[in-house]
């Protein structure tokens, strides 16, 4: 049924298993009767391993979000974007609006770097462990636009949730281009505070679930 919440990380998990099987098949073909030994002794390819890491991150965040689900808060996981191979990791529906959440299991400290200002155009960059990850913000904004186009006048907010990042003991969360950048516990707190609004959570959940099918 379209109203099922979906399984967090399921499409990433399937992609990991597909890539792992393909890598093993190639090794067996290359090494013939020593194929089994080659598979046992070989490390997983980095790109294959990244799908496993991503799936674990989505699964962990999904479990936390599921624990929040109640009459005033609904969650959906791993939803396919219509007409695309891409998916949305998590969608939360609160009385105040819809949250589109992208889960990332990156190492390093997320921080906002601001360039320009008075004489030059202001540019905001998302850095994670000093790597420029601004493209992640762009990705969330695209997902927000897709959801907004399909739900009409219900407020839609984007969030990037870093599962195992090096967050400071005090502070750390920030917003860039309207996208919240935070960690699971902080995200849960923010979502639970979204009580002031007139969104019919159950009806909106049904509507969103019917438009964004499980991936």
UniProtKB/TrEMBL annotation:
It comes from the Bacteria. PROSITE patterns: NERD. Pfam families: NERD. Residues 12-24 have a biased composition (Basic and acidic residues). Residues 1-24 are annotated as: Disordered. Residues 53-170 form the NERD domain. InterPro entries: NERD. This is Nuclease-related domain-containing protein. The lineage of its organism: Bacteria, Bacillati, Actinomycetota, Actinomycetes, Micrococcales.
């Amino acid at each position: 049924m379209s109203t099922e919440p979906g399984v967090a990380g399921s499409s990433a998990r399937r992609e990991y298993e597909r890539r792992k099987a393909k890598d093993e098949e190639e090794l067996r073909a290359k090494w013939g009767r020593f194929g089994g030994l080659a598979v046992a002794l070989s490390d997983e390819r980095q790109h294959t391993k990244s799908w496993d890491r991503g799936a674990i991150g989505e699964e962990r965040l999904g479990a936390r979000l599921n624990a929040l689900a109640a009459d005033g808060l609904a969650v959906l996981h791993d939803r396919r974007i219509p007409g695309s191979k891409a998916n949305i990791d998590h969608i939360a529906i609160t009385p105040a609006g819809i949250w589109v959440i992208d889960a990332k299991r990156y190492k390093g400290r997320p921080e906002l770097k601001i360039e320009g200002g008075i004489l030059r155009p202001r540019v905001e960059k998302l850095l994670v462990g000093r790597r420029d990850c601004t493209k992640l913000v762009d990705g969330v904004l695209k997902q927000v636009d897709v959801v907004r186009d399909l739900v009409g006048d219900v407020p839609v907010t984007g969030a990037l949730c870093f599962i195992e990042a090096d967050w400071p003991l005090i502070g750390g969360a920030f917003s860039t281009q309207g996208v919240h950048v935070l960690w699971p516990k902080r995200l849960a707190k923010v979502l639970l505070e979204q009580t002031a609004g007139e969104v019919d959570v159950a009806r909106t959940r049904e509507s969103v679930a019917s438009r964004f099918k499980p991936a």
